[in-house]
């Protein structure tokens, strides 16, 4: 669940990037920031540490990103740091991505299968989803052996579950309900 803070700040960042025709650049740079935050959680903790002055925390952002980052995005990160909202950056990026996708006619799809899909299977599924939705589909694939077989598709806030595990769970529920 995304917080109102993330929606507000992520939306404002998208609006600014859109006005400046920098939506692609910011999307790419936000991805880099999120990757670095994930790889270095101690850095995020440092940027949120109240015992370190706000000025010193902001300087850390300048040192890390100063010359390479779009200045408004750097200012955005500084603002989040100053307000103690570094924990909201991931949610802001999610809202930014949602607005970007909406503006560019992109639908995100997550496919989870029991075994890795071949390139041919991925391409066929991707093409079918794009024809079905009439939009560009940004598809991410994951493997989860616990699904036993089949695939699960999450798209447009809906889950389409065609996995063997789902079918077995449904059968178990029916059996449990009838053996009372």
What does this structure look like?
- With 180 residues, the chain is α+β, with helices and mostly antiparallel strands.
- Helices cover 61% and strands 14% of the residues.
- The chain contains eight helices and four strands.
- It has a four-stranded mixed β-sheet with strand order 2-1-3-4.
- β1, α7 and β2 form a beta-alpha-beta unit.
- The longest helix is centred in the first third of the chain and has 17 residues, at 23-39.
- The chain is elongated and about 65 Å long.
Which key features would you list for this structure?
elongated; alpha+beta; 180 residues; 4-stranded mixed sheet
Reconstruct the topology from this structure.
Layout: H1 4-19, H2 23-39, H3 41-47, H4 54-65, H5 71-82, H6 89-104, E1 106-113, H7 119-133, E2 136-143, E3 151-155, E4 158-161, H8 164-178
Parallel strand pairs: 1-2
Antiparallel strand pairs: 1-3, 3-4
Helix pairs in contact: 1-6, 2-3, 2-6, 4-5
């Amino acid at each position: 669940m995304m917080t109102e803070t993330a929606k507000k700040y992520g939306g404002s960042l998208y609006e600014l990037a859109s006005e400046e025709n920098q939506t692609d650049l910011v999307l790419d740079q936000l991805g880099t920031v999120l990757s670095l935050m994930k790889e270095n959680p101690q850095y995020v903790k440092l940027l949120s540490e109240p015992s370190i002055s706000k000025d010193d925390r902001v300087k850390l952002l300048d040192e890390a990103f100063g010359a390479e980052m779009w200045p408004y995005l750097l200012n955005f990160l500084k603002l989040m740091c100053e307000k103690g909202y570094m924990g909201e950056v991931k949610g802001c990026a999610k809202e930014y991505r949602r607005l970007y996708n909406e503006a560019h006619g992109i639908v995100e799809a997550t496919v989870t299968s029991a075994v890795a899909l071949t390139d041919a299977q991925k391409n066929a599924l991707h093409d079918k989803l794009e024809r079905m939705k009439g939009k560009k589909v940004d598809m991410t694939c994951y493997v989860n052996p616990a699904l036993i077989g089949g695939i699960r598709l999450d798209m447009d806030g809906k889950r389409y579950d065609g996995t063997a595990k789902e079918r077995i769970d449904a059968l178990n529920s029916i059996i449990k309900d009838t053996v009372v």
